[in-house]
Design goal:
Radius of gyration of chain B: 20 Å
Helix content of chain A: over 70%
Number of domains of chain A: 2
Oligomer: heterodimer
Number of strands of chain B: 0
Number of strands of chain A: 0
Chain lengths: 236, 121
């Protein structure tokens, strides 16, 4: 019991130190690939490898951080409240955009995966990649995907969207604050929303809303799209 | 109100919102995750005036400022993939996931901006 407490404390300290170094390195370099989340993640992995500690042991003993992650998602309700009037005035735009985004996310990843010759199991593993992990895992499992792989893909899509997102939005001429937050939350769920929060509170609120709406629409749409994929892939 | 008391009060209210969210999530058979449900619960509490924004402000902002930290246990999971098991589909995964993410980014942003422009800003 006492050992477990020490282990948990050490893992939390490791995470916090890596996080602070991540912030510092990103602030100094301002280089996309040295983003806080990438640097912090790599530092934790390297440190664990160095002392030969299993990643799973680390994950099992950092429940406090996971718990705080859940509370942070709850805290997005506060931003939603603060920006409610603005968001409400754009309700139609927000719902149209996230519904289309959800449909496009599922269809495009499915279509591309088929094009690249992926097998059924991999395709359903990929389908929920743009939504928050707990919902993505449930959907993946429901249709015979590999849940551990879904979890990893969701994280990678999140990091990718958070890092490439602001650059790509600039490139495509998307400047509106609401559009930026909603796009980051839709493509990269919580990690994208964390990135959106760096730009502003309104962007963060929009990101939080996008997580909720994308989760909702995607869990409704995937059951309709999986049968279509089964028709295109007749061998299974 | 003392800053520290406010911080603790904020934490308590967020934790309660989370547990109500968890209960609701079970009621909806996990269709919406507990945290997202909790977000809607907190929003409702604030909107109805049961909870005042200043009670939770400092704790909520503390969490949101450090959101990246709380993702680390999930992101280190990347090191767990065994590349031999996905070797055949690795290319498909990387290309389809990244291209699709870019499409979603652009599409969502584009639609919102289109609406904003047509409404005269």
């Amino acid at each position: 019991m006492e050992n477990k407490f020490i282990l948990e404390s050490l893992f939390i300290i490791l995470s916090v130190v890596s996080y602070i170094l991540g912030i510092y390195i990103y602030a100094k370099s301002r280089f996309m690939l040295f983003h806080t989340i990438i640097v912090a993640t790599l530092l934790v992995i390297l440190a664990l490898r160095f002392v030969n500690v299993d990643i799973q042991l680390y994950q099992e003993n950092t429940k406090l951080l996971r718990y705080l992650l859940n509370l942070s998602i709850v805290a997005l309700g506060y931003l939603l409240f603060k920006h409610y009037d603005y968001i409400k005035s754009k309700g139609v735009a927000i719902i149209t955009a996230t519904f289309t985004g959800s449909l496009a996310a599922i269809l495009s990843v499915g279509f591309l995966a088929i094009l690249f010759g992926a097998k059924y199991e991999t395709i359903v593993t990929l389908l929920p990649k743009s939504i928050t992990t707990p919902i993505a895992i449930v959907i993946s499992e429901q249709f015979g995907g590999v849940i551990s792989l879904t979890a990893v893909i969701v994280v990678i899509a999140g990091i990718f969207g958070a890092i490439a997102g602001p650059w790509f939005l600039k490139l495509t001429g998307i400047k509106s604050r609401l559009a930026t937050g909603l796009a980051l939350g839709s493509a990269a769920h919580g990690i994208g929303t964390a990135k959106a929060l760096e730009t502003g509170a309104l962007e963060g609120a929009a990101g939080g809303l996008a997580i909720a709406l994308m989760g909702l629409f995607t869990s409704m749409l995937i059951p309709l799209i999986v049968p279509l994929i089964k028709i295109v892939l007749p061998e299974i | 109100m003392d800053e520290r008391i406010k911080f603790l009060l904020g934490a308590t209210i967020l934790i309660i919102s989370y547990y109500i969210g968890e209960l609701l999530s079970y009621a909806f058979m996990g269709f919406i995750s507990p945290a997202v449900m909790g977000m809607l619960v907190l929003f409702t509490l604030l909107k109805t005036g049961i909870v005042k924004a200043i009670w939770i402000e400092s704790f909520a902002i503390f969490l949101l400022d450090n959101l990246m930290l709380f993702f680390i246990p999930a992101t280190v999971g990347v090191a767990l993939i065994s590349f031999s098991s996905i070797k055949d589909d690795a290319l498909a995964i990387v290309f389809s996931a990244s291209l699709s993410s870019l499409l979603v980014l652009w599409l969502v942003g584009y639609i919102v901006q289109k609406f904003e422009r047509s409404n005269g800003k």
